[in-house]
Amino acid sequence: MAANQSKNLIFVSFGAAGIVGALCLLDMATGIPFARQMLFDILFLLSSAIVGYLAWDAYKDLA
Q1: Distance from C-alpha of 6 to C-alpha of 50, rounded to nearest angstrom
Q2: Which pLDDT tens digit goes with each residue over 34-47?
Q3: By residue range, what is the domain housing residue 38?
Q4: From CA 30, how far away is CA 42, in angstroms rounded?
Q5: Which among 11, 20, 32, 48 is placed 20 to 30 Å from 42, CA to CA?
């Protein structure tokens, strides 16, 4: 039961990191969601990559 809940939390982390990364890439390309502020886009991309890596590492440990 607890392992299933942990896996669900990891998948939510994957999803959140993917959504933030996709929105930042979209903003860098078109400027639609956040008015193309490059510094914030780069920082959010970096943070989403870190969260994605941490979720992947936690998933490896759980499996």
Answers
A1: 19
A2: 888 999 999 999 99
A3: 2-62
A4: 15
A5: 11
Number of structural domains the chain divides into = 1
Which residue has tokens 């959504």? 19
Whole-model pTM: value is: 0.88
The whole-angstrom separation of Cα 34 and Cα 5 is 33
The CA–CA distances, whole Å, from 33 to 12, 20, 26, 56, 61 equal 22, 11, 8, 27, 35
